[in-house]
Amino acid sequence: IRCWSNIPFITMPLSRAHGKSFAHRSELKHAKRIVVKLGSAVVTRGDECGLALGRLASIVEQVSMLQNQGREMMIVTSGAVAFGKQRLRHEILLSQSVRQALHSGQSQLKDMAIPVLEARACAAAGQSGLMALYEAMFTQYSICAAQILVTNLDFHDEQKRRNLNGTLHELLRMNIVPIINTNDAVVPPPEPNSDLQGVNVISVKDNDSLAARLAVEMKTDLLIVLSDVEGLFDSPPGSDDAKLIDIFYPGDQQSVTFGTKSRVGMGGMEAKVKAALWALQGGTSVVIANGTHPKISGHVITDIVEGKKVGTFFSEVKPAGPTVEQQGEMARAGGRTLAALQPEQRAEVIYRLADLLTDQREEILLANKKDLEEAENKGRLALPLLKRLSLSTSKLNSLAIGLRQIAASSQDSVGRVIRRTRIAKDLDLEQVTVPIGVLLVIFESRPDCLPQVSALAIASGNGLLLKGGKEAAHSNQILHHLTQEALSIHGVKDAVQLVNTREEVEDLCRLDKLIDLIIPRGSSQLVRNIQKAAKGIPVMGHSEGICHVYVDTDASVEKVTRIIRDSKCEYPAACNALETLLIHRDLLRTPLFDQIIDMLRVEQVKIHAGPKFASYLTFSPSEVKSLRTEYGDLECCIEVVDSVQEAVEHIHKYGSSHTDVIITENEKTAEFFLQHVDSACVFWNASTRFSDGYRFGLGAEVGISTSRIHARGPVGIEGLLTTKWLLRGDNHVVSDFSEHGSMKYLHESLPLPQRNTS
C-alpha cells in the first residue's frame, strides 16, 4: 500500500528490463512507464475552437486510475492553440463590440468579421489555461501535475537533454504526472525533409514525433497515441475495402495507403506510423487508437493497458500462423466450399474423422495425458473439470459412434426444400435450408467437444472457429489436426480453424464482421461473460442448468430413487444434472421420503433445505442461500410444494428453462406438467440426464440452448441451419400484378420433393 495525500491505493508489482518492446497485447498489463499522447482532434471540440471538456475529464480519470495503481504516467498534449483561439476570439469580439457600439450602433454587430489568428499567439494565450484545467482535473484524484514545454532544440543540446531527463525522472519519483507540450509560442516551422533518420535522430516537428522521442528518451514501456480514427487501416478509412489493422509490423508500411491528415493538428496518420515505428525500434511498445469515439473513449486507455483488442498494436514479433481475422476469412471461404459439396462428400469427411478417432487412439490419449498431468501439477482445476478434461478409450469409441450417426443423418440437411409456392404462372418460390455461416465455439476443459462440434459444422456446411481452454491445449491440437486431415480428402481443410493465438475471448466476441453465431460450452460464468461481451453477434446457449425433479403423490416407489440417483449422481458436474428436488407435501414423513433421503446420504450428496422444507423440520440441513443455485457437484436443494401447479410455478420462478422432470403414475398430472412447464426439455418418469444430443439421436450437440429464438434444447444439425428464398421466374415484374395488370397472384402450395431417407 502506498499513500499520496492521505489516500491509500494498491501498487502493482510492475517491473521489466527496458530495451525490447512487448511482443503481444496480453503483456501490456505489465507496462510500468506509459506515455499518453493526446492529438489535437482528441483534445479539441469539433468546431476547433475550445476544448472537449467531457472527453478530457474522462482521459484524466483513466490516467489517474493507472497512476494510482503504481504506474508512471506522462501526457503529451495538444490543445493550447485551440484553447488560446477560443480566448482570443472572445477578447476580439468583446473589444470590437465595444468600438462598434460607440461608432456605428448595435445594428452592425452582426457583421463583425473575426480576423485570422496567428497560431503562436493562440498557443501563448492558451498554454496557461490548458495547464490550469489539467491541474484542476487531476486535483480531483489527489494527483499533482506539472507542465513542461519543449522545442526541437531541447533534444539536440546534450545539456538540455540531460536536464529534461532529470526533471522528468524527479517528477515521476514524486508521483507527479508530467504534462508535456511543444512550445508552440516560439517553435520554428518544421524544416523541409527533416524526418525520422534512424534510431538516434528524430525531428520534433509535431506532438507525434515529440511523444516518440520522449518515450525512447525516458525508456517507457508503452506509448498510447490517441487520435480521431480507430487505428491504422490498410487503406484510407471510409473507403469500401478499408480494414482495421490489429497488429502492425515493421516493413508492412509498403502495403498501406495513407489518407489525408486529421482535421486539426500538424501530423496525419503517416506521421503517427513513422513516429510509432521509431519508438518501437527504440524499445517502446505503441498502440494507436481512437480517443474521440463516445462509446469507447471513457475506457480506451485502460482497455489498452489491460491488453484488450483496441486500435492498432505495433509489434516486432510476427506470429508463426495466421491472425484470428485471417482465420475467420479462411473459415468463411472454406465453409462456402464445404456447403457446395455433395451431401455424401460431407458425410465421407465425417466418417473419416470417426475412423481417425479410433485409429489414432494412442496418440490422442498420450496428448490428453500431458494435459491431465500439467493440470494436476498446477492444481488449478477442480475435480469436476478434471473429469471433463479426461479422455478414455470408451469416450473415443462413443465419440466415433456419435459422429457416424451425424454422417448418416446429414444426407439431407443443407439445401433441403421446406416450402414451395407458386406465386403466379411460371413464377415459383422455394424456401431452402442453408448454413448459418461462420460459427465461433468457445469451450472449456472438454476436448471431446472439438470433434463433436466439428462434425456438426461439417454436416451443416458451416465454417468453424474453435477456441479451447489452454488446459486442453495438447488434446485440442491433435484432435484439430485429425479434423483437418479428414477435411483434406475433399480439399476443404480451411473450413475448421483452431484459434491458437493469445486472443482474449472478449476480443473474439467483437469480430461481428467475421462471425455469425457464438456457441459457448463451459461454466455458467463463461456463458454469462460471453453473452455480455458479444456485440452484435447472437449467442446460443444457456447461462445456467438449474434442473428440477418433482416427485408427485402418485409416484412409483421403484422409479423415484432410481431417477433421482441418476439425475444427481451419474455426472453431477453436467449442466443437465438435478439441482433442486421438489417433494409433494403429502410425501413428508412417509417411507418413500425416507428412502430418498437415505439414498442421497449413501451417495454422499449434501442436502440444502428450501425455506418451506426447513419450516417442517426441527433439525434441518443448512438452509439454502438461493433457490437459483447450480451446484455442479454432489449437492442439491430439497423444497416442498403443495401441488403440481405450485411445482410448475416454482420452476418458472427459480428455474433456468433447461430440463425439468415429473415422477408420477398419474397420466393426467403428468400431461399437465408436460404442457405447462416452459422449459427446453420436459420429461415424465425419465432422468434429467437424457437431455443430450447423443441420447436424443442427434449424434452430438453443439450445446443446449434455453433461448426461445431459432433453436432450443440440445442443438444438432438442424439448429445450425437457416433458410433462404429462391424465386424462379420468366420476365416477371411487379407492375404486371397491379389492378389493371395482366397477371394475378396464385399463391398455391406445391408438394415438396421427396426426402432422401436412406
TrEMBL record:
It is found in: Mitochondrion matrix. GO terms for cellular component: mitochondrial matrix. Pfam families: AA_kinase, Aldedh. Its EC number is 1.2.1.41, 2.7.2.11. Pathway: Amino-acid biosynthesis; L-proline biosynthesis; L-glutamate 5-semialdehyde from L-glutamate: step 2/2; Amino-acid biosynthesis; L-proline biosynthesis; L-glutamate 5-semialdehyde from L-glutamate: step 1/2. The keyword ATP-binding applies. Keywords: Amino-acid biosynthesis, ATP-binding, Kinase, Mitochondrion, Multifunctional enzyme, NADP, Nucleotide-binding, Oxidoreductase, Proline biosynthesis, Transferase. GO terms for biological process: L-proline biosynthetic process. It catalyses: L-glutamate 5-semialdehyde + phosphate + NADP(+) = L-glutamyl 5-phosphate + NADPH + H(+); L-glutamate + ATP = L-glutamyl 5-phosphate + ADP. This is Delta-1-pyrroline-5-carboxylate synthase. It comes from Chordeiles acutipennis (Lesser nighthawk).
